[in-house]
Structure formats: structure tokens, C-alpha cells
């Protein structure tokens, strides 16, 4: 039976959500919003840091760490322009060994004002 984690340490209006099935944990996508629901201004790097902080909150509320990440799917609204800056933050924040990752360029993301969204799959015994 799946177990659901909701944490209000991730952005409003929806709390951070994760679903545990067996040893796997699947997070919903997170964007560059603060827990109070306001979008982080500045650069894609600023929003990427916030996304990873949001995901860390959800993951830790589920009893995992970012080090348990086995797969990440990352969406950038301007892959060509922002990939290098995004990747610099990814390398800085995500622990080694880095998980498998796919980065996808999209025309638009659902949360107004964001240019990055990330979802994770984690595993632990």
C-alpha cells in the first residue's frame, strides 16, 4: 500500500507531496517557489536552489535524503540558455554519486514565473 507524505515546508498552495511504494519514493515536481507561495526572483540558479531546498524538505519529511536519489527529471523553459547555470547549482547541491538525470526543454511550466521544475525518484532499503 503506498504511503503519502505531505509537508508544508514546501510551496503553497499545495504542500510538498511524495509517494512511497516499497523502497521507492516519488516526488511531485517542485518549482522555484518559497514555502509561502511566492516565486523566487533573480536567476535560474536562484530558483534551482529553491527547487532543491523544496525537494529536500519533502524528501526528509519522508525519511530519505537527497543522497537516496536514483533518478531526476528536470524541466527548463529555455534549455539552451539556462542549462549551464542550472547544472552548476545541480553539481553544487546534489551529493555524489550523482543520480541518473534527464533534462528536458519545455515551452512553458505550469507555475507562473518559473523556468525550472524538478521531480525525483529515490530508493532505500
TrEMBL record:
One of its GO terms (molecular function) is deaminase activity. CDD domains: YjgF_YER057c_UK114_family (cd00448). This is RidA family protein. Coiled coil: none annotated. One of its GO terms (cellular component) is mitochondrion. Belongs to the RutC family. The lineage of its organism: Eukaryota, Fungi, Dikarya, Basidiomycota, Agaricomycotina. It comes from Cutaneotrichosporon cavernicola.
Amino acid at each position: 500500500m503506498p504511503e503519502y507524505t505531505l509537508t508544508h515546508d514546501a510551496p503553497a498552495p499545495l504542500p510538498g507531496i511524495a509517494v512511497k511504494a516499497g523502497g521507492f519514493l516519488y516526488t511531485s515536481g517542485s518549482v522555484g517557489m518559497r514555502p509561502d507561495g511566492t516565486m523566487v526572483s533573480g536567476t535560474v540558479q536562484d530558483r534551482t536552489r529553491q527547487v532543491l531546498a523544496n525537494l529536500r524538505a519533502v524528501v526528509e519529511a519522508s525519511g530519505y535524503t537527497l543522497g537516496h536519489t536514483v533518478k531526476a527529471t528536470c524541466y527548463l523553459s529555455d534549455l539552451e540558455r539556462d542549462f549551464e547555470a542550472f547544472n552548476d547549482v545541480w553539481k553544487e547541491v546534489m551529493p555524489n554519486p550523482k543520480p541518473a538525470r534527464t533534462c528536458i526543454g519545455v515551452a512553458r511550466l505550469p507555475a507562473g514565473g518559473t523556468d525550472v521544475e524538478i521531480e525525483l525518484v529515490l530508493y532505500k532499503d
